[in-house]
Amino acid sequence: ASTASTTVRNQSFSVINSDDINYFKKILGESGVVQDEEKLDDANTDWMRKQKGSSKLMLQPKSTQEVSQILDYCNSRCLAVVPQGGNTGLVGGSVPVFDEASGILVCEAGCILENLISYLDNEGFIMPLDLGAKGSCQIGGNVSTNAGGLRLIRYGSLHGSVLGLEAVLANGTVLDMLGTLRKDNTGYDLKHLFIGSEGSLGIVTKVSILTPPKLASVNLAFLACKDYTSCQKVLSQAKRNLGEILSAFEFLDINAMDLVLKHLDGLRDPLPSSTHNFYILIETTGSMESHDKEKLEAFLLQVMESGLVTDGVLSQDINQASSFWRIREGIPEALMKAGAVYKYDLSLPPEKMYDLVVEMRGRLGTEANVVAYGHLGDGNLHLNISAQQYNDSILSKIEPFVYEWTSKQRGSISAEHGLGLMKANKIHYSKSAETVQLMASIKKLLDPKGILNPYKVLPTSLLSHS
Ligand code: FAD
Ligand code: 2HG
Ligand code: ZN
Fold this sequence. Notes:
about 475 residues; alpha+beta; Uridine Diphospho-n-acetylenolpyruvylglucosamine Reductase, domain 3; Alpha-Beta Plaits; 7-stranded antiparallel sheet; 5-stranded antiparallel sheet; 17 helices; about 35% helix; binds flavin-adenine dinucleotide; binds (2R)-2-hydroxypentanedioic acid; binds zinc ion
């Protein structure tokens, strides 16, 4: 049971006692019941080191059956449970089976994303998602947060790629929805409730996922633009001219670039001849090298001749490509090294996106460094505000302004990271009252005592449990 320091503990939850611990040891063995303070401290601290839980016990079940027994017991004792995967979330077991003919991977929720990527690589396939935290995040966590990442523009969201899953409800009931069919319109497709519900409705224990074939030709271009409007125009042209081979379209502004070059070791500016205001990464993935190269080169010529792109370089080998990716994927780490960071993950109409960044800079002046980057191809801005220290003056200039601004544009206050603890009480900026009420009813139906991930996702005011 974990609560952030600022959250008032719900008194209806029980406190763990020695009988509970003995029961868990009986079903999981000594090694599955962790009370070691250092390990608990790690698990109680989020990646951003902003939220601190106070859980006294970590359980490490190895099978669906064990998850089910744990939840059944916790539900009857009213013990709160926080599902945790790789603990890389930003808002506050592992036996893969693969069918080569269909490209469908069935695996346990505890598989680390990078291990799945390597496993599939040997089989000639790829995962339909990739993100900077791949070395530690787990597929169960990815599905539970509906993680987007770097290739969503090509492969779509996990609501499309996940074909089935197994989940355990709060009372221990195991829901077998582990289908591997592309089409199955037999009633409500309940797996979607668990994709992106951040552990608030059940624990995902297994996943089946459609994986695209690995294609022979992957190219990566690192480009510079003088202004944001040019970035947007490059995006429209890339969609039109590179359409079927486009596999990533990411952007970063000069503040993000400066931060990465300052805080991460071994990285060089790929376009050092002059300074640029904006950078774009364009990746193409296709089946025929000569065709893809010809297309990409013609596209680059066009955007450079028209002045939309002021400088650019095509990666010459895999090492150069990974150093380009390292610049983009390393931004969250660089921000952590720079000091305190206020993180906002917004979906906005692309033409309005950077106006918010400019307004935010006007509000904050020299008090903080406003850093912008993200999945421009998906209309997803990562607005990060970096400061020496957290302080109320900065926060009051950011919030509620950032949420109100986003809401006015009918944007989303969480494009891909979820609501967690940080934004549970902010959901109304993006969802209507009726919608949130229905969500609360679903939560009550599936988890009547509210033991699963309390204080997260939905406003606490709506979650008075029996
Ligand atoms: P955790 O952090 O352990 O948990 C996240 C949430 O899911 C929690 O609410 C938890 O209770 C719940 N949960 C975890 N496992 C389960 C389960 N088996 N069943 C039910 N609930 C569960 N996110 C993106 O969308 N796109 C990105 O590009 C991206 N890049 C990132 C880069 C870095 C460097 C970092 C640190 C994070 C990034 N993230 C990104 C955020 C994060 O990595 C993802 O949200 C990831 O999917 C979380 O997986 P996890 O296993 O670490 O989950
Ligand atoms: C990314 O795209 C992640 O790098 C993290 O989603 C975003 O740190 C962030 O703001
Ligand atoms: Zn992201």
